[in-house]
Amino acid sequence: MTVATQVLVVEDDDKIAPPLVRTLEREGYAVERVAEGLTAVERIASGGVDLVLLDLGLPDIDGLEVCRRVREGGYVGGIIILTARDGELDRVVGLDVGADDYLSKPFALAELLARARALLRRSAAVEPAAPAAAAPAAAGLRVDPASRRIWVDDTEVAVTSKEFDVLVLLDEVRGAVVTRERLTSDVWDENWFGSTKMVDATVGRLRQKLEEAGAPVQITNVRGVGFRLEDQADA
């Protein structure tokens, strides 16, 4: 039996949420709706959520804080921010704290559905491995595309779907430059029309996670071109 994709709508506006929920349900998604940020954080932490549609203007805590907390808590599923704000600062901050995409209100439901499908195609939201899971024998950084898992020595590193896809591309040609254009096309969509800041924000989060895990590599920004994954001895 196929389990429906679970979408959590975090939206306090009763004029927006019900039609959005109905539309998603007609598309075959299992949908829950909550109206407060703290409730959303608790629900996501309980597991089983594949995609979050997150409003920024919530009545208790800001949607950016929700995004920050759930990413820090290990959530690796997709997050699309929905907001009436259209400022560049909010957009960049949203990406920095872990959002995968960003739509300004009012938005067309068809566009939202298209972005959700594109994100979910990339999003194999894998739960963090249990402690008993077998660790790889090799030391250093290991990227396993088949299982969509990353290890630094014997410790698994939790990353989002897009962070993983970025690392796979960089690791495939370790030491060579991968252009922003290729990252945008392969990780997002060949028809992606959003900001290239998505790439920079995702790489920034990935770089921080690798550094915190003590990975013997670094991601170098090749100005005006793209990024290169290098062993630290070669960097």
TrEMBL record:
This is DNA-binding response regulator, OmpR family, contains REC and winged-helix (WHTH) domain. InterPro entries: CheY-like_superfamily, OmpR/PhoB-type_DNA-bd, Sig_transdc_resp-reg_C-effctor, Sig_transdc_resp-reg_receiver, WalR-like, WH-like_DNA-bd_sf. GO terms for biological process: regulation of DNA-templated transcription. Residues 6-120 form the Response regulatory domain. Pfam families: Response_reg, Trans_reg_C. Residues 133-231 form the OmpR/PhoB-type domain. Residues 133-231 bind DNA. It comes from Aeromicrobium choanae. One of its GO terms (molecular function) is transcription cis-regulatory region binding. The modification 4-aspartylphosphate is found at D55. GO terms for cellular component: cytosol; protein-DNA complex. It comes from the Bacteria. Keywords: DNA-binding, Phosphoprotein, Two-component regulatory system. Coiled coil: none annotated.
